[in-house]
Write a structure and sequence with these properties.
CATH superfamily of the largest domain: PPM-type phosphatase domain
Shape: elongated
Structural class: alpha+beta
Number of helices: 12
CATH topology of the largest domain: Phosphatase 2c, domain 1
CATH architecture of the largest domain: 4-Layer Sandwich
Helix content: 40-55%
Radius of gyration: 28 Å
Number of domains: 2
Number of strands: 10
Strand order of the largest sheet: 1-10-9-6-7
Largest sheet: 5 strands, antiparallel
Distance between the termini: 18 Å
Order of helices and strands: HHHHHHEEEHHEEEEHEEHHHE
Length: 381
Amino acid sequence: MPEQSAEVQQQSLPVLVRYGHRSWLVPAALLVAVVVVDGLTPHSFASVSWLVLVPVVAAGLCGPLLTVAFSCVSIAVYPAVDSIWAKSQGIEDFLLVIAGAALALPLSLARARAAAYVRHLQGAAETTRQVMLRPVPHGWGGVDSAARYLAADVEARVGGDFYDVVATPFGARVILGDVQGKGLPAVSTAAALVGCFREAAFQLEDLASVAYRLEERLLRQNRMSARLGEREERFVTAVVLWFPDVAPGEIRMVNFGHDSPHVLGPAGVRQLPSGNGAPIGLAKLAGGLPEAQRLRLAAAETVLIVSDGVTEARDRQGDFFDLRAHLEQLSGQPGAADPEHLVDEVAAAVVRHTGGRRTDDTALLAVRRSAGVSPEETQWG
């Protein structure tokens, strides 16, 4: 479920990562440029010594083997070009190119070791992401769902936004939340609430009881964090939905101060009521937990929940991403309400709107009741 579309993956990666397999073209183009410039300029302008830049640039962009190759080519090209145009300033220029080539290899090896270390950290972060944002089978709990997660730190790939779909004896329960703050404390809080939701949603039939468990879990998490030296108490905005088996034409929703979900279907786009509930962790200040709402939902309608990484995404001019307008445009397209198609389209639109520059984690979750699923396929496990 959490896999990104190819367009989103490509646009969210740094340029050097996105085009890393073509990085050899940069030192190759530089090599050609130095030779051409040296041939086209007057005899008094000797640029062949600029070949020293070729192995150094290769060390910063390519692996050790390609760096060695460019170093050898640079050393070989220098006397060849010098013999043709005889514009060298002396042996010291040639020694400069050799020194650059000798320096390039250890630089390339150091960069390769650093890159391997970063990949190791990415693997650990990816494992954490798979635990928190686990894949969900098609039709799990009697609903079709799709989700996308775009971390503000592309290399970290995990942050304080979270979501899950749980198959229960009472019908599917889903959650999408956004932890206040960033960094490891936000990730730790998100992990605590995901674990709590998975157990409470399965064991408790009353959605209000599930909401109470989430509130109580966050309070305990904040107390533990304070004992560990964390100065800031966390709160979490979230939306919890329940698709009851006994009422196929409706859903239950608890909104903890989160942006209200949108519904996309044959009749167009509409937004569910906000509920004006307090975020998780602030119930005492708000006078209690938000109430569970009963809302209609047609069989062909899809609910889209997003974090503020979508609604607060800005372009270069500072304009916010208009989610409602984009959904209106999508509503007339065939298959627009398909969860996979919907989250792909919205995630790609957010990346295009921001130009790939994200300052906040972004999570999207689309869910609708499965059509034509047998009772065996909707069993919980």
